[in-house]
Design goal:
The structure is a single chain. This protein starts with 19 loop residues before the first helix and ends in a 5-residue tail after the last helix. The chain is about 20% helix and about 30% strand. The protein is an alpha+beta fold. It is globular and about 40 Å long. A hairpin with a 2-residue loop joins strand 4 and strand 5. The N terminus is likely disordered. It contains three helices and six strands. It has one domain.
Amino acid sequence: MFKIVKLALVGLPLAACQSSAELQTSMQTAEPAPASVKAAIVNDARDFLADPYSIRDAEISYMQLNGRSGLHWVCVRANAKNAMGGYTGRQAIEVIVRNGQLVGNLPNSAACRNPTLRWQKFPELEALRDL
């Protein structure tokens, strides 16, 4: 779908690396993503999507804490047009957050497919089409 940041993920312990018990605990304490994190995701999407004005069906997960690393993460899923002008279907990306800053991402993360993950609409991302 899109690249949130250009940083390598080598050595970052991601949500997909958490045990089932750790992931369950993380989901119980999850909170909606803060406005500052949402704004950073929108800003980066504007720079990296082939057609940021085509985003639809956008959602963002509640922010989770990876107990092992102390990093937070959210998942973003949306449908956007590719460079050929066609919609790709909704795709998800895990976004890694450290101290409120985006530090990495993992496209098609297994964590984003967890059926217990809580999602909310992400109208700020869809609003790019109105610019």
